Amino acid sequence: MIGHLTLPAGVDRRPAVLLGPEGMGLSDVERRRADALAELGYIALAFDLHGGRYLGDPEEMLARCIPLLADPDRMRGIGHAALDVLRTEPRTDPDRIAAIGYGTGGAVGLELGRDGVNLRAIGTVNALTTGRPGEAARIRCPVWAGVGSEDPIMPPAQREAFTAEMQAAGVDWRLAVYGGALHAFHHPPVDHPTVPGVGYHPRHAQRAWRDVVDLLAECLPVTEDLGHVPGKHAGAGH
């Protein structure tokens, strides 16, 4: 697996974000998002799904992703491998990590939560996947999910199953439905065929990114430990 690790300026320890790509695999879209997170002060690892390959052929992508999405242990294996790399970075604060993911990469993040991993937040777009019965109770952080209202791959019945699972498990969850948007509405157009039901929605893509950044600001603030960093001065309230 070949990921894309970005570091913010400075030498101090920082919170970190695991960033998962759509089923096609790691592309410049996710690399740019990781770079943007570094500019906000996070360490970010955009992780790989397909051993360094980007699957632009929809049939090949589905042939790999459908079995993967049906195998929670394989998804967890990919997620843990990426998490190990992120934790190995000396500047990563291992107690302050969030998982953000799109499509298949979002499902990987959810499975890490269902595996009981200590995450500060899980944020997903187009990844309303349900897990094995009862395992969502092991999720230890808030979960935010976004989906397009017209997404045929994540239709209303799938939304309901996902939210029912989260609610039954006592998870702190939120679901944002972006009106008129299709599947992968956040992803700029690509120069190869895609599966039916995919479409870019620029306005909602910007809104979903702001929602993700807001989730991180709430659950994984960059400035959380400024009072303990030499040379920094925290405000009142100690």
From TrEMBL:
Keywords: Hydrolase. Residues 4-218 form the Dienelactone hydrolase domain. The keyword Zinc does not apply. It comes from the Bacteria. SUPFAM superfamilies: alpha/beta-Hydrolases. One of its GO terms (molecular function) is hydrolase activity. Belongs to the AB hydrolase superfamily. PANTHER family: DIENELACTONE HYDROLASE DOMAIN-CONTAINING PROTEIN, DIENELACTONE HYDROLASE DOMAIN-CONTAINING PROTEIN-RELATED. InterPro entries: AB_hydrolase_fold, Dienelactn_hydro, FrsA_esterase. It holds the Pfam family DLH. This is Dienelactone hydrolase. The lineage of its organism: Bacteria, Bacillati, Actinomycetota, Actinomycetes, Kitasatosporales.
